Amino acid sequence: MPLRVKIPYPESNIYFNNVCLALNISTQTFSEKLGFHCRTVKDWSKSKHTFPLEVAEKIKYITHIPLPSNAIVFDSVKQKSEAGKKGAIARNTIFPNPGTFESRRKGGLHSLKVHELLQDRFITKKKLNVTKDSNKLAELIGVILGDGSVSKYQVRITLHNHEKTYSKHVSKLIKLVFLEEPSIGERKNIIDISISGKNIVTFLVKKGLFVGNKLKNNVSVPKWIKKQKNWIYSVLRGLFDTDGSIYLDSHYHGSKKYKSLCVAYTFYPTNLLTDAYLLLKLIGFHPTRGTKNRVMLRRREEVIQFFKKIKPANAKHINRFLNFMEG
Fold it and tell me: Of 67, 105, 171, 265, which is the most exposed, with the fewest CB atoms less than 10 Å away?
């Protein structure tokens, strides 16, 4: 039981001075021996704070100096509980009854109706409008899995500032899916495209996305997207536009060096990497695992077919592909 002692001033000062005199040590040394800061012990002697009863018992055992007759020993937990009750009674005396849960709910609903009639600036939970076009939704999910993030109340897609043309495509995609304009902001070399609303986040979570860190959650392509080819094409487009690349892959056959056109997806969540590999196989391609975090298409004819079927929307990929083909 956490018992504490309160000694009124100046008896508290006399008590601790007598203890130091009996031990023939300074307050600083006395504090160190007790295991408390010197300022704490000085506050005890000034009766600013109470101190543990075990300290008084230790002092009596060493110096034979008892507590003053006007010292008060009390249970600190019980005292806090009683103080809390007194505070609650005082509060209820000043303020009216807060009501029941049901009465507060009815009051809140009535308040919303009043604000709606007045058309004031009071912010209410916005209604969710979502397209029925699952192809657009699947592509947007691919974009979010690639360069996006989902927080409790917001979805944000972050692109490089040299992807301004693609950022317009993403903004249009968001508007087509959620039937509202996203917010667009630029900072240093980055373009942020975001759309806010708890309803939107809840909807995307129901569709298979996660709130929080993609790597920790080991995100994957939602199961419903894997059920139709068109949805697979769409999600692979969104993933490639954000986390894909096209380049000349160098390799040796014997002593001869060869270069071949290659498409690659690079992911750190292992589930996403496996999904990309399996989805490419599912639609007729022959992917390979190039490195630990990369899935590749290395056959020239398959790279051409990839651009025909997946139809990437990011200009940087399209331009590189056309340059390689012309070269």
Answer: 105
Distance CA 14, CA 10 (A): 6
Report pTM.
0.63
How are beta strands 148-150 and 154-160 bridged, if at all? antiparallel
Dihedral (C-alpha) 149, 124, 172, 210: value to the nearest 10 degrees?
Answer: 20
Could you report how far apart the first and last alpha carbons of the chain are, in Å? 85
> Domains in the chain, start-ordered, CATH in brackets?
3-90 (1.10.260), 134-326 (3.10.28.10)
* SS3 of the chain: helix, strand, coil, percent, to 5: 55, 20, 25
The per-residue b/e assignment along 277-297, b for 16 or more CB within 10 angstroms, e otherwise, is bebbeeeebebeebeeebbbb
Q: How far apart are CA 297 and CA 249, in angstroms?
A: 10
SS3 112: helix
Looking at the DSSP bridge assignments, the partners of residue 253 are: 256
Strand ranges for the chain from DSSP E: 3-6, 51-52, 72-75, 148-150, 154-160, 183-187, 190-196, 244-253, 256-266, 288-291, 294-297
Give the mean pLDDT per block of 10 residues along the chain (327 residues).
Answer: 86 92 91 90 92 90 91 82 74 68 75 75 71 92 96 94 94 94 91 93 94 93 95 97 90 76 92 95 92 90 95 94 84
